[in-house]
Amino acid sequence: MNHYEQYADVAFERHGQDTRVTAYHPDLELHGIGRSAAVFRIKATRLVIKVFFPGYTHIAAEEAMIYRTLEGLPQFPGLYDAGPTYIVIDYIEGKTLFECLIEGIWIDPAYIEQVDQALIAARRLGLTPSDVHLRNLILTPDGRIYLIDLARFRQGQQIDHQWEDLKRMYRLYRLRFMPKRYSERWLNGVAYLYRTFVNDPRR
Ligand SMILES: Nc1ncnc2c1ncn2[C@@H]1O[C@H](COP(=O)(O)OP(=O)(O)O)[C@@H](O)[C@H]1O
Ligand SMILES: [Mg+2]
């Protein structure tokens, strides 16, 4: 299982609110950066390694446990390895729903239904899903939705209502006269206002 540990040796640098990646193994390709970790594709595989920033490394074990609980469910990546600062999971080809909105890719009601079904399945396994938002949902080219970034599915934590709020917004989005494409700046602005005035789970 320890084959992937060499890839977890990533150098990070903090710049104010942002964390940047400054050095990593040549077998890796930087794929995405979140608020707690950097995600790299492992070349010549169908896997990614999520390496947590200093100060967030405790999340690795928590997130690994959630992936183990959800093992076999179709709407979640499989877990391949986990260590003190990282997890290795399936690479999900596609675009986050956030990217879909920027590119004007239609978000179908069937995708919303898939998320709801995945959340029901996770709750049945005793988890309490939270932090479900547009950047943590990936749409694959064949129209399937995957949920990622699952640390805040753990039991006994304070849950948020982001997904319920997003579904309310979705009712607006579906109206014929509403735009189906938004600038990244605008979406980030809305997300900022939402976190500040409505709901910030990290505060
Ligand atoms: N398994 C995956 N397959 C493809 N892309 C992924 C995968 N996991 C994460 N990503 C990309 O990396 C970004 C950051 O990962 P995420 O797990 O959300 O980190 P954080 O906990 O810091 O928010 C995601 O928004 C997504 O774009
Ligand atoms: Mg995320």
CATH class of the largest domain, named: Mainly Alpha
State the CATH topology of the largest domain. Transferase(Phosphotransferase), domain 1
Number of domains: 2
What are the secondary-structure elements, in order, as H or E? EEEEEHEEEHHEEHH
Categorize the overall geometry.
globular
Strand order of the largest sheet: 3-4-5-7-6
What does this structure look like?
Helix content is 31%, strand content 23%. The chain has 203 residues and is an alpha+beta fold. It folds into two domains: 2-90, Phosphorylase Kinase, domain 1 (2-Layer Sandwich), CATH 3.30.200.20; 95-195, Transferase(Phosphotransferase), domain 1 (Orthogonal Bundle), CATH 1.10.510. It has a five-stranded antiparallel β-sheet, covered by helices on one side. Strand 9 and strand 10 form a beta hairpin. It is globular, with a radius of gyration of 17 Å. 25% of the residues are buried. The protein binds adenosine-5'-diphosphate (ADP) and magnesium ion. Adenosine-5'-diphosphate binds next to strand 3, strand 4, strand 5 and strand 7. Adenosine-5'-diphosphate binds at residues 31-32, 34-37, 39, 48, 50, 77, 89-92, 96, 135-136, 138, 148-149.
